[in-house]
Each structure stands twice: as C-alpha cells, then as structure tokens.
C-alpha cells in the first residue's frame, strides 16, 4: 500500500450492537471514501460454552440446551445431535416419528426463511413485508406451540422418536396453512420480485463466485445461489427424504438477488414436502408408536459419530465422541453461519458501504449459531 | 477408492466415524502434503473442508480431525493427526481459506498453536481469558458450578 492510499483510508466500526447485524457482531471496516477495502468480523459476544456444557451432564440433560444453538430452527439442532447418538446406539425410530420429524423440520425451515425474508427487507428499508412475513410465521409458531408446548425452544425430539403425538385437529391446521401458503408466497413475490428499488439494491451486488464459495466451505442456499447443486437431503438422504419428491432450487449468478430467489423457491419446495407428509400421516393416524422406550440408565454409547442435517442456513454437523460413560467426551458443532461470516470480507470488498448490510443480510447469518 | 492414497502416504491406522466416514491417521509433518494431494488429485477432489474438530484424548495428547467432502464423488472422509507434548501444527489456511476461523477456535479452546496462521488470536473468548476450557485438565473457576463435581 503506498502513501497516497494510506491517507484516504478510514476505519469504520459497525456494531457490536447494530440493528442489521441480527445479533451481536462487530465489523471493523476499512474504507476508502465510501468504498470498502477490508472487513474484519469480530465474533464471540454470544459465546455460551455449548461444547463445554455438553461434557458436564448426561446425554439427555444436554438435550434442552441444544435448541438454543440456533433459536430460529431448533428442530434441526436437536435432530443433528440425536442423529449422532442414534447412530452410535443403533436406534431406528418408528416410521411415524420419522414423518413427524420431517414435517416439523420443513415447517421450521419455512418459518426460519420467513423471518429472514421479513428482516432482510426491513434492512433494505421496506417495512410492510416484515409484517406480512410475520403473520405467516405466527401461524407456524401456533402449530408448534400446540404440538411441542413451546414457540421457539421446542425440546420436542427425544432419543428414538418424538415426545407428543400429532392429532387430527393439528393435521387439519397444518393442511389449511400449507394450502394457503403458496397463495401468500405469490403475494410476496408480486410485491418484491420486480420492485425496482429492491432490484437495484440486490442485483449484481455481493457476487459470490463458485470458487470462493467452495474455498470458504459455504453451504445451503448461499452455495446453491452460486450454481452449485449441493443439498444433503439429496446427497446423503436422511429421515424419509428418499421417498419424497422435491426439487433443489438453484441459480447461477450468485448475487444477493439470487440468494433471495433461491430461499423463496425453497419455501415452496418445503410446502410440497409438508403436503406429502400430511398424506401419509392422515392415512396412518391410528399408528400409535411415536417413540421407543429407552432405559435412560443404559445410554452409554461408545465410539465416534457425526450427525448431519441440512438446516435452513446450510450444513449442520454434530460430532460426538463417546467413551462408554453416561457423559459425552466431546461434542463439536459445525454450524453453517460460522463459515458464512468469514465470507463477508471476500464478497463485500470493493462495494459501497451502503451495500454492506444488503450483502450481509442476504447471507442469512445468525449470531448464536456462530458463537455457540 | 482410497487404496492409492493409502499406499502413497503409507497409512497404517484407519478407523470409522459413524455412519460411514473413513478416518485416516497420518503423521503431523505430512498434513499439508496430504490435504493438498486429496484436494487436487482428480481421483479424489476433496475440495471442501467441512470443519476441523479438535479434541483432548487426555494424557497430554490432542487429536485434530479434518473433515473433508468431495462433491464430484459425493464422498466424505476424515484425516486425523495426533499431537503429543508439542502442540504446534502447520496451518492449512493457504490450502483451505475457511480454516482460518476453525484454527483460531482450536487455538482458543484447546491451545494448539498453528504455524504461519495469518492472525492467531482468541476468537470466542475474551482476549484476557486464562486457560483453554476444552482441555480435560481445565478447572472451572466458577463457584456456582461446583455441584457438577462433588
């Protein structure tokens, strides 16, 4: 760097408290005029020691805490954790539990994307989509409240199944929601997709090249918006995804706009999956077995396992090393946002500082998941 | 699939991480060579480093597991190194840029020093924190957590 540019750079500090960082994140930006030269993300403000906490209690004592890793999609965290233990102990859940897990996870994906959609447009200055998205999200949270007893921190999955059975009334509610949802989504798209302000703030902004995406281990919708078709539900099918028909939406350009389009399309696909699960659950409503009764004193697995799940933000892994006692010896979380946050320096470089929040918002980073 | 790789680097020990991930134990000094080979050889193309897992095996021995994914062959594998006494490991940031935060996290929580890392500082814990919490010999200072150990 020569002297003339040195004179022109300014350091701008964004956060830790800032409305559009969606949590507590600090960005140290180096600017040349209004152009970003370098951004350094500083994280750790929400660190709760989740991995250390796992080592202090038994396997099932840790279960309620797991939902807090990513509070917008608690079902996915529980599933990744239980998936690893179930592999270690060779447990196969009853079929009805698998369907209930799938339907709740897909509804959770929709609710998480809806929150992202509302908040992202709020970041860009549009207030009304926020309320429309939250009306729809509220319907899903009501369903979850009836099913699991909580709106966000469910603690609903358990080793070998789920805790409460789903009844006909609840299935009816889900059916009404899934029936109306595509119409609602069409309204959002009419409102947003061709909006000139939205397009000028997102199209060709924050372009993520394929090579950078792979190098930075980006997963989920961010990767698929750059044209790489990678989805755990197709690559390594878990639960009942093998029997279900759905597509993986993707786009080639890799800008903020295509990340938005991919997420909206993903919600439609989730709706499709929900409908297929509903059909099965309606015809097997009498099937009562939803979990295996497992003797909690016998939960003493041994070995190493990785539980994996395609969460709304990307690939989530839970590595468990078990040593034959009732406590895990090591639990490691691989959370997708941890890798997206590193990316910000690569993709926001050379854009204007006013684009920073548009780019950062489009990555769908959630801070409790980064800091764990 | 891994026969060529195993003979080239003379791999003796191999384990499985459930469900079906091969875990190869390699020498600490070969780490960069092995990862570059797995990333760039056409037969493997493990171009994504999913994460680095660090764990304490007690008796002053740590283990680092590099979880890799190849989208072309749709396979996962893991490369593992055991480190004893001297906790310094070559950094792999130049091969996989995403390892930057991962290595800082392991430095922070387990106290492994990564040689040639661009910025080796604490990442999750405050900079004046003492000790490495995920080590098995770490004593929690907090009096409120005493019930866990009595």
What does this structure look like?
- The complex is a heterodimer of chains A (372) and B (150).
- Chain A is α+β, with helices and mostly antiparallel strands.
- Chain A has one domain: Cytochrome-c3 Hydrogenase, chain B (Orthogonal Bundle).
- Helices cover 49% and strands 14% of the residues of chain A.
- Chain A contains 15 helices and eight strands.
- In chain A, the strands form three sheets. A three-stranded antiparallel sheet of chain A has the order 1-2-3. In chain A, strands 6-7-8 form a three-stranded antiparallel sheet. Chain A has a two-stranded antiparallel ribbon with strand order 4-5.
- In chain A, strand 4 (157-158) and strand 5 (161-162) form a beta hairpin.
- Chain A is globular and about 70 Å long.
- The mean pLDDT of chain A is 88.
- Chain B has one domain (3-136): Beta Polymerase, domain 2 (2-Layer Sandwich).
- Chain B is α/β, with parallel strands linked by helices.
- In chain B, strand 4 (61-70) and strand 5 (75-84) form a beta hairpin.
- Chain B has three helices and seven strands, in the order H-E-E-H-E-E-E-E-H-E.
- In chain B, the strands form two sheets. Chain B has a five-stranded mixed sheet with strand order 1-2-5-4-3.
- The chains are: A alpha+beta (372), B alpha/beta (150).
């Amino acid at each position: 760097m020569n002297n003339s540019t040195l004179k022109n750079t300014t350091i701008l500090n964004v956060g830790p408290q800032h409305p559009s960082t969606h949590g507590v994140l600090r960005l140290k930006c180096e600017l040349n005029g209004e152009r970003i030269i370098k951004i350094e993300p500083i994280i750790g403000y929400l660190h709760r020691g989740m991995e250390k906490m796992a080592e202090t209690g038994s396997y099932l004592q840790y279960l309620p805490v797991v939902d807090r890793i990513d509070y917008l999609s608690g079902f996915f965290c529980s599933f990744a954790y239980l998936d690893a233990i179930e592999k270690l102990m060779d447990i196969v859940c009853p079929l009805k539990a698998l369907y209930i897990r799938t339907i709740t996870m897909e509804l959770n994906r929709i609710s998480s994307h809806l929150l992202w959609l509302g908040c992202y447009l709020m970041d860009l200055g549009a207030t009304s989509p926020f309320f429309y998205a939250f009306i729809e999200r509220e319907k899903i949270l009501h369903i979850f409240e009836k099913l699991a007893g909580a709106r966000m921190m469910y603690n609903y999955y358990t080793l070998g199944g789920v805790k409460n059975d789903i009844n006909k009334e609840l299935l009816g509610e889900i059916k009404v929601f899934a029936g109306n949802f595509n119409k609602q989504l069409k309204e959002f798209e009419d409102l947003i997709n061709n909006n000139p302000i939205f397009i000028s703030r997102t199209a060709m902004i924050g372009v993520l090249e394929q090579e950078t995406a792979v190098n930075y281990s980006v997963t989920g919708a961010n990767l698929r918006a750059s044209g790489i078709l990678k989805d755990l539900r197709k690559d390594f099918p878990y639960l009942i995804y093998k029997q279900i028909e759905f597509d993986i939406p993707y786009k080639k350009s890799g800008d903020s706009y295509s990340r938005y389009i991919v997420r909206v399309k993903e919600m439609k696909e989730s709706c499709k999956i929900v409908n297929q699960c509903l059909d099965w659950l309606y015809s097997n409503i009498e099937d009562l077995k939803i979990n295996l009764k497992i003797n909690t004193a016998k939960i003493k697995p041994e070995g190493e396992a990785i539980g994996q799940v395609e969460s709304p933000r990307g690939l989530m892994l839970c590595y468990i090393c078990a040593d034959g006692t009732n406590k895990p010896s090591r639990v490691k979380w691989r959370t997708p946002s941890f890798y997206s946050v590193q990316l910000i320096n690569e993709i926001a470089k050379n854009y204007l500082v006013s684009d920073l929040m548009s780019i950062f918002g489009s990555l769908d980073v959630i801070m409790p998941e980064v800091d764990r | 699939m891994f026969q060529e790789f195993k003979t080239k680097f003379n791999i003796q020990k191999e384990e499985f991480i459930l469900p079906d991930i091969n875990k190869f134990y390699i020498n600490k000094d070969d780490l960069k060579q092995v990862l570059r080979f797995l990333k760039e050889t056409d037969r493997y193309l493990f171009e994504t480093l999913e994460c680095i897992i660090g764990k304490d095996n007690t008796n002053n021995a740590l283990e680092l597991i590099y979880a890799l994914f190849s989208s072309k062959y749709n396979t996962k594998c893991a490369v593992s190194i055991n480190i004893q006494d001297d906790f310094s490991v070559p950094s792999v940031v130049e091969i996989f840029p995403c390892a930057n935060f991962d290595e800082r996290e392991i430095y922070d929580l387990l106290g492994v020093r990564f040689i040639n890392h661009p910025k080796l500082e604490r990442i999750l814990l405050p900079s004046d924190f003492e000790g490495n919490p995920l080590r098995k010999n770490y004593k929690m200072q907090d009096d409120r957590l005493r019930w866990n150990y009595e």
